[in-house]
Design brief:
This protein is α/β, with parallel strands linked by helices and 211 residues long. It contains seven helices and ten strands.
């Protein structure tokens, strides 16, 4: 089998954070699959299959079928495919269809977690790193939030809901929080505040919480 599936990390959002490897891989692929936001990062893409939250798995399955039929497919993942990305979803479907693992290449990208740490001068290998995207068991954060390490988290749903959850479960409303919103975009914001203030602020879903 000569075809390949490339799972490409596209970084936090700005073209400036695309790697040369990501750009070259997308340019050489026959089919590009990704959200509209990730596809727009690349120029002159004709053969594309945009997906959204509702049809994500269907489009990934279509992409793997195309690879089985000899096409080189690039599947785009925001940030890094291996952190709150689509890596596991692609591998699960590829395994089901018996597509060989050796024909799948994972191209890492810069995660918004990394960028949030850099913007706030944090040595992030000593932080609690966690994601609650698409997860209901947000109570897991309570197990680590008081272990004397900084916690960097991708919140579940709205940031204010996460703040209210923490306050309702015994975390001080005055706990210091840094919110990094829309990192790498022209309108990015870094807000130094507290949990009680966050509980009353409307923010976009593109946020990182640092506690």
């Amino acid at each position: 089998m000569k075809s390949k599936i490339h799972i490409v990390g596209t970084g936090p959002g700005s073209k400036e954070y695309l790697t040369k490897k990501a750009i070259k891989t997308v340019e050489n692929a026959n089919i590009i699959i990704g959200s509209e936001r990730t596809i727009e990062l690349f120029e002159n893409i004709d053969h594309k299959l945009p997906f959204n939250a509702k049809n994500l798995m269907k489009k990934i399955e279509e992409g793997i079928d195309l690879a089985i039929n000899g096409q080189n497919v690039a599947i785009l993942s925001t940030g890094d495919p291996g952190f709150s990305g689509i890596l596991n979803s692609v591998l699960k479907i590829a395994n089901k269809k018996k597509y060989p693992l050796e024909n799948i290449e994972v191209i890492p990208g810069i995660s918004s977690i990394q960028l949030a740490a850099a913007k706030n001068h944090l040595q992030w290998d000593n932080c609690n790193i966690t994601t609650f995207h698409g997860r209901e068991n947000i109570g897991d954060i309570l197990k680590i939030i008081n272990n004397n390490k900084t916690t960097i988290a991708l919140p579940s749903k709205k940031v204010k809901d996460m703040a209210k959850f923490l306050i309702d479960n015994g975390i001080s409303p005055d706990r210091k929080v840094i919110i990094c919103e829309r990192l790498s975009y022209d309108d990015e914001k870094i807000i130094h505040t507290t949990l009680k203030e966050i509980a009353n602020i409307e923010l976009t879903y593109m946020c990182i919480m640092i506690l």
